Amino acid sequence: MSTSPASQITPVTPGPPAPVIFDLDGTLVDSEPNYYEAGRRLLANYGVADFSWEHHTRFIGIGTRETLEILSREFGLDAPIEELLAGKNRTYLELARAHTAVFPEMRAFVKRLSAAGHPMAVASGSSRAAIEAVLAGTGLDALLTTLVSAEEVAHGKPEPDVFLEAARRLGVDPADCVVLEDAAPGALAAHRAGMRCIAVPYVAGTADDPAFASAGLLFRGGQGEFTARAAYDWLGQPVRSS
């Protein structure tokens, strides 16, 4: 496993363009502050006044529905999950449309992949409406048109459903795909899908999580270490059999 930084990778001429599947939140875009604020406001409406950023980071990489199911149990909320889900999505969409930042090197990577003809998809635990709003607001929708939400499959991450569905919609073999992920549940989902993974941990302290051990390329320093060139050079390396 290559573990950081990819400065030691020797560029080679890429083979057939590998399909690349992106997680959205925390990977392509820095949407976690918006998700935290949406969750904080939602819980405050139900009398929970002490939901912290540290508490929120426990759920990075987990789908919105699953997150709310856990929080509902923890805080003893008696509102239906559908009500909570609708409330959080509504608030999140307002925040996301106002501003969502794209990680610059990720934008550069998407453009480089597009120019080279790599099939691409987004597979996220967010709602489809949230995915579409974020991509439209950042201009990434012009390059990323195959989208899969956890709402559209039976199980969210760490199960592999969203990634397998993305491969199906792209018409490619899952074994040929490369996933970009920022969270341990997503890296585990990629492994379970039989896909290679480039891991860019959003929370630096999670870099040693066992789920990242299966990543083919791990940028331990997260987005501050990730570069489009390093990731693209790694894509061109021969795939080693396990």
From TrEMBL:
Q: Which Gene3D superfamilies match?
A: HAD superfamily/HAD-like, Putative phosphatase, domain 2
Q: Mind telling me which SUPFAM superfamilies this protein's record contains?
A: HAD-like
Q: Which InterPro entries match?
A: HAD-like_sf, HAD-SF_hydro_IA, HAD_sf, PGP-like_dom2
Highest taxon of source = Bacteria
Known PANTHER family for this protein? 2-DEOXYGLUCOSE-6-PHOSPHATE PHOSPHATASE 2, PSEUDOURIDINE-5'-PHOSPHATASE
Which protein are we looking at?
HAD family phosphatase
